[in-house]
Structure formats: structure tokens, C-alpha cells
Amino acid sequence: MHNVNVGRHEEGVVVDLHLEVDDQMSLEEAHALATKLEREVHQDQPQVSAITTHIESRSGAVRSSTMLAADADELTRVIEDIVNTAPGAVEVHNIEIRRFDLSVESGGQRLPDLVVYLHCRFDGATPIGDVHQHCHSIEDRILVEVPHVRRVSVHAEPVKKKEKTDYAN
């Protein structure tokens, strides 16, 4: 599954998602699988009033990716600089830059499609609305400032509290 979207509507909670199935699966089998998934969601989450499932071939949905080796260190430094100057961000770690096979030819040259995944720590007392806005700002800056990045996903975490070593208190 991917592209899972959940929203409120006057009728209740609505969900739409993409379900990836094997290329050789028949429409009848794929539809039965989607129906089973929808039924299970309705049973587990009765507030969901509608589910729309887009069935697609796994080969069309999952594209090959490789960790980017060339220029990865430089791109990582640029991303760290962006995050380290972002409001509210305390620390960035687990930066992954992947090259996906999504690109198109441009002037006879194949342009890379990069996807960036990173974890960013914020003060744990920060309201989630503010953290969400900070994450979007980081994502937007990376999309603008780092060439060929097509998607960014920031995973927000609270700053780790120091573990107590004195158990006598």
C-alpha cells in the first residue's frame, strides 16, 4: 500500500489508498483482496464511512531504488545545513538519499530522481501543529535547494531525554 489519505467529510472519515498487487494477479483476485482489506478497515475503524482503493500492478508502483553513492556526502552536508538552520529543529540524523528509477530524458540526458528520508528531533513540548509546519518548511527548502530531489519525508521525533543513571533516588 501507498498514498494512503484520510480525511473528514460530512459523512464521516473517508480513506483512499493505492493497493499494489502482483502483475499476474487477475482483476477478480485483486478486487477480492481490496474488498477484504476494505471490510477489515471498516470492522476495525467503524468511523470510516468510505474507502476508495486504487488497485495497481506492483511493477508499476514499486520502482527500483539504490542508495546514492556519488555526491552523497555533499548532498548530506547540504541537507544537514538546511535542517540545522530550520526553526525548531534540534538535530537531524538517519539521512537517506535514494535514486529512484522515475526520471525522464531531458535534452538527451537522463535526470536522476532523488528521494530524501530523514529523522529530525524537536523539543518534545512543541505543539504538533508547529512541528508539522517546521517539517513542511524543511521539506520545501530541500525541494528548492537540492537539485533533482523529487520527494522529501521528514520523520519528527522528540529530543531524547538523558537516561537517569542514579537509581537510588
* Assigned CATH class of the largest domain: Alpha Beta
Determine the N-to-C terminus distance: 48 Å
The appropriate CATH architecture of the largest domain is 2-Layer Sandwich
Low-confidence spans: pLDDT under 50, at least 5 residues?
59-70, 102-106, 163-169
Identify the notable features of this structure and list them briefly.
three-stranded mixed sheet, globular, 169 residues, single chain, Alpha-Beta Plaits, disordered C terminus, alpha/beta, 2 domains
Topology:
Elements: E1 2-9, E2 12-21, H1 27-44, E3 48-57, H2 58-61, E4 65-67, H3 72-84, E5 89-100, E6 105-106, E7 109-110, E8 113-122, H4 128-145, E9 149-158
Parallel strand pairs: 2-3, 8-9
Antiparallel strand pairs: 1-2, 4-5, 5-8, 6-7
Concise summary:
By secondary structure, the chain is α/β, with parallel strands linked by helices. It has helices spanning 27-44, 58-61, 72-84, 128-145; strands at 2-9, 12-21, 48-57, 65-67, 89-100, 105-106, 109-110, 113-122, 149-158. It is 31% helix and 40% strand.
Q: How would you explain this protein's 3D organization?
A:
This protein is an alpha/beta fold and 169 residues long. It has 2 domains: 2-61, Alpha-Beta Plaits (2-Layer Sandwich); 65-158, Cation efflux protein, cytoplasmic domain (Alpha-Beta Plaits, 2-Layer Sandwich), CATH 3.30.70. Helix content is 31%, strand content 40%. It has 4 helices and 9 strands, in the order E-E-H-E-H-E-H-E-E-E-E-H-E. It has helices at 27-44, 58-61, 72-84, 128-145, and strands at residues 2-9, 12-21, 48-57, 65-67, 89-100, 105-106, 109-110, 113-122, 149-158. The strands form 3 sheets. A 4-stranded mixed β-sheet has the order 4-5-8-9, covered by helices on one side. It has a 3-stranded mixed β-sheet with strand order 1-2-3. Strands 6-7 form a two-stranded antiparallel ribbon. A hairpin with a 2-residue loop joins strand 1 (2-9) and strand 2 (12-21). The chain starts with a strand and ends in an 11-residue tail after the last strand. 11% of the residues are buried. Residues 59-70, 102-106 and 163-169 have low confidence and may be disordered.
